Amino acid sequence: MSNKKTVVTQEQIAHQYEYMQFIAKMTGEKAQAYGHPLRAFTQTFGCQQNEADTQQIAGMLEEMGYEPVDRAEDADVIVINTCAIREHAESRALGNVGALSHLKKARPDVTICLCGCMVQQEHIPEKIKKSYPQVDLVFGTHALWRFPELLYRSLTGDKRIFDTTGDAAGYIAEGLPVLRDGGTKAWLSIMYGCNNFCTYCIVPYVRGRERSRASADIVKELEALIADGYKDITLLGQNVNSYGKDLDEQIDFSDLLEKLNAVPGTFLLRFMTSHPKDASHKLFDTMARCDKVAKQLHLPFQSGSDTILRRMNRGYTAEHYRELITYARSKMPDITLSSDIIVGFPGETEQDFEQTRQLVAEIGFDMLFTFLYSKRSGTPAAKMEDDTPHEVKQARFERLLKTQDECVQVRQDAYAGKHVRVLVDGHSKGKEYPLTARTEGGLLVCCAGNNLEIGNFAEVVIEKTSLRCLFGRSV
Ligand code: 5AD
Ligand code: SF4
């Protein structure tokens, strides 16, 4: 196994385009016979990275002549892009695949594909071979760029294909098509994989090592997005603060932000996820200086207890985290903050948990993503002793949510009467405030008033607030 990433050559990509053309010819002929185009259904579990991957799969499917549909029953090809981060995500994906067995019996010609993080785990292919005979094609995260070739083999007679091999050092493939949804928001991957090996986390095992895209390719993609009318762009990576470390060019994440900020146009740049171990003062200085970079930071701290942080292999202390937030707020007083927290890590005591809860109360996050610890086989934490009963973990989880709701209410209320710049992005369910928008910090605003148009920035005054939403009128 090599420890150097593989940059997929343009010749290899061209080869995939040939497969796309072979399939497009086949689907074209069938479409003539059926009187309608062939159809594809995609479904995504998990994070934004996975959503971005699905958009690439959808782009390839479109190139191969498939029209997207909303229901699996109407599709000729079904692709389920799975997640492995918690057991819940896995059981939902497997439940959905299980439910497709009737469809496969009724229409044996439908092609069912399973891909993504879950199938990249060692024990999963065997499980699918044995218990899910309806699945035709299984491909892991490393084989994503070879989807056209794999689908071609599946369509032309190969029985059940399993391709979950691939070098953990990982791949970078440029030039594959992407099908985005055409709204105001777009994902833009800047790097893939993770080197951190937090002891609870499966990601490094299923997504391989950190690897960055060349900055020129990212700039080119951003320019194309702006030209297509996207205005709210989120840069994606498991740990964006490591951007550039594996590149020959001398560039770090702050430099990249600066470069992207200089691209002409009216747009907002967001990014996720940052790691407190690598988030630097330079990053916060750059964010503060760059006018197109949203003053928003997602900085997961996972636990407020140094003992637990050490056992999680996180590489920082609660004090370091506090210091980072203080610095970020000193540079950007209105910054919107969010975090991820795991409740019930093996051996978490009442005192450890209380430290987490206190940090939440002290910092006052605008958004919090709270998870109950889920044991992932193959990770170091899976072997740690865990004697806290589930009910105790559940009770802690609920206490944390309560603390967070109290903080959010205070932060939401503080917006009353304020003028904020928002990007209008859709229709709301309510009549009084018929449109939805996002603040620069990513908070939801239902709004009303003249001169509001989806896809445009506007200034609104906040008239009232609730726990989940601000309500504003254009000024
Ligand atoms: N159990 C619970 N939550 C987890 N996360 C990652 N691994 C696990 C796990 N095994 C959470 C972390 C991470 C977020 C994306 O998911 O909080 O930041
Ligand atoms: Fe995303 Fe991690 Fe889930 Fe994969 S395992 S989809 S990287 S959250």
What is the strand and helix layout of this fold?
Elements: E1 6-7, H1 10-34, E2 39-44, H2 48-63, E3 67-68, E4 77-82, H3 87-99, H4 101-106, E5 111-116, H5 124-131, E6 137-139, H6 147-155, E7 161-163, E8 171-172, E9 185-189, E10 191-192, H7 203-207, E11 211-212, H8 215-227, E12 232-236, H9 253-261, E13 268-272, H10 281-289, E14 296-298, H11 306-311, H12 318-331, E15 336-343, H13 350-363, E16 367-372, H14 390-413, E17 419-427, E18 435-439, E19 444-448, E20 457-465, E21 470-474
The protein binds 5'-deoxyadenosine and iron/sulfur cluster (SF4).
Iron/sulfur cluster (SF4) binds at residues 46-47, 49-50, 83-85, 117, 202-203, 206-207.
Structural account:
This protein has helices at residues 10-34, 48-63, 87-99, 101-106, 124-131, 147-155, 203-207, 215-227, 253-261, 281-289, 306-311, 318-331, 350-363, 390-413, and strands spanning 6-7, 39-44, 67-68, 77-82, 111-116, 137-139, 161-163, 171-172, 185-189, 191-192, 211-212, 232-236, 268-272, 296-298, 336-343, 367-372, 419-427, 435-439, 444-448, 457-465, 470-474. By secondary structure, it is of the alpha/beta class. Strands 3-2-4-5-6-7 form a 6-stranded parallel sheet, sandwiched between helices. Helix 10 packs parallel to helix 12 and helix 13 (350-363) runs parallel beside helix 14 (390-413). It starts with 5 loop residues before the first strand and ends with a strand. The model has no long low-confidence stretch (mean pLDDT 96). The structure holds 5'-deoxyadenosine and iron/sulfur cluster.
